[in-house]
Design a protein that fits this description.
By secondary structure, the chain is of the alpha+beta class. Helices cover about 35% and strands about 35% of the residues. The protein contains 7 helices and 23 strands. The strands form 5 sheets. Strands 1, 3, 18, 19, 20, 21 and 22 form a 7-stranded antiparallel sheet that branches. Helix 4 runs antiparallel to helix 5.
């Protein structure tokens, strides 16, 4: 029937009747092609591997918080050394000029307070002892002279002027005796030794160099036969049960340290063994040569493992300063870099690289990569990162 109807049409009409279905089919195919291309392009478009959309399960495992400021204490690492406690050290010398005849201690020896370290022979000491003996003898003579003068005065043999002269001579003799005794004290003699000289009338030209405190002999600068002066330092005795760790803080950081702050001391010579103390001193002036401020801490050294002049690293905790910070649990480590998950849309987060600063308690400062007010995964970042890796493998 189709052929019969086609035969009844004119040639032009028959041509149009055949072409139209082909045109319609071509139009339909061309309309479908862009949609197919768009779908294929959408399928081929790569997804950002750093973006994670939270599933309902993850939403229950994480906590979201806005980035803010927290008080962070920096740790300043400054070089220093061990020094003796200046309140527990004695620099000992001779009290008189003389020649060393005996040395009773060696370097490193422990000594008790009052122990004799060395003995010297001094002509200066002998001369002053002689003056004291003479002054003591004069007291006895002048006392008897005054007693006779009083008897003669009472018998009206001498006048009052003569009695007064004798009393004045006695007073002068007492002043001479007092001066001679004080000089012997200056030369290191005790009251007991002076009394022995006065009773026996014999001089003792030997003087002892005694330890003024209990401790360890850490320096000896004397030899037998050496002539020494009172100004010379012969021994240094130090109590090493407590020592100082002293360091120099650059003046630009001096405002960050203050007395009473906790300090950790690392000593390389002891296998970086750590000691803890507190800052007991922060200098009030800057060293003009090094542009540093001296700080020190007091350390217990009961076992005397710490030796003076050992090099140390002092880790000084600075005073608190407000800084942009996030919880430590918000940070994930990937490819040796630190990252946090930052919200880019509701329940959608992108992993962003950040630069971290000092850690304090459960917070860490962020020096670069975050701004205040941005929302981040504060807890559960580990779970979110695992989800990101799982998606990346799909």
């Amino acid at each position: 029937m189709f052929l019969n109807s086609l035969n009844t049409l004119s040639p032009a009409a028959r041509s149009m009747r055949i072409v139209l279905p082909g045109l319609l089919l071509a139009l339909l195919l061309s309309a479908c092609k862009p949609a197919q291309e768009e779908n294929a392009a959408a399928e081929k478009e790569p997804q950002d591997p750093n973006v994670v959309e939270l599933t309902p399960v993850l939403q229950n495992q994480v906590k979201i918080a806005a980035v803010g400021e927290a008080e962070i204490r920096d740790i300043l690492r400054v070089p220093g050394s061990i020094q003796v406690d200046e309140q527990r050290v004695a620099r000992i010398g001779a009290s008189v000029t003389g020649r060393i005849t005996d040395i009773n201690v060696i370097l490193g020896q422990d000594v008790k307070q009052g122990q004799v370290l060395a003995t010297l022979n001094s002509t200066e000491l002998a001369q002053n002892q002689l003056l004291y003996i003479k002054a003591s003898q004069q007291i006895a003579l002048q006392t008897k002279a005054v007693e006779r003068a009083r008897q003669l005065f009472e018998a009206d043999v001498i006048g009052a002027a003569e009695l007064q002269r004798r009393e004045a001579e006695l007073s002068a003799a007492k002043a001479d005796l007092y001066t001679a005794k004080e000089q012997l004290h200056v030369l290191g003699m005790s009251d007991k030794s002076i009394a022995q000289i006065a009773n026996s009338g014999q001089m003792r030209s030997y003087s002892n160099v005694d330890a003024r405190l209990a401790g360890t002999v850490i320096s000896r600068k004397v030899n037998l036969g050496q002539v020494v002066q009172p100004a010379e330092e012969l021994f240094i005795v130090a109590d090493l049960s407590r020592v100082w760790a002293v360091a120099e803080v650059p003046e630009q950081q001096a405002e960050l340290v203050q007395e009473g702050e906790d300090v950790d001391i690392e000593i390389p010579a002891l296998g970086n063994r750590k000691f803890t103390g507190k800052l007991i001193f922060v200098a009030d002036v800057v060293n003009p040569l090094t542009r540093t401020v001296t700080v020190r801490t007091d350390l217990d050294n009961s076992d005397e493992a710490i030796k003076p002049d050992m090099l140390v690293s002092m880790l000084v905790q600075s005073k608190a300063v407000k800084q942009v910070a996030v919880p430590l649990r918000a940070v994930v480590r990937e490819n040796d870099k630190d990252h946090v998950f930052v919200e880019i849309a509701p329940n959608k987060f992108r992993m962003r690289e950040v630069e971290l600063g000092s850690k304090y308690q459960e917070m860490v400062s962020v020096t670069e990569g975050l701004e205040q007010g941005e929302k981040v995964i504060a807890e559960g970042a580990f779970h979110v990162n695992n989800e990101r890796k799982r998606k990346e493998l799909e």
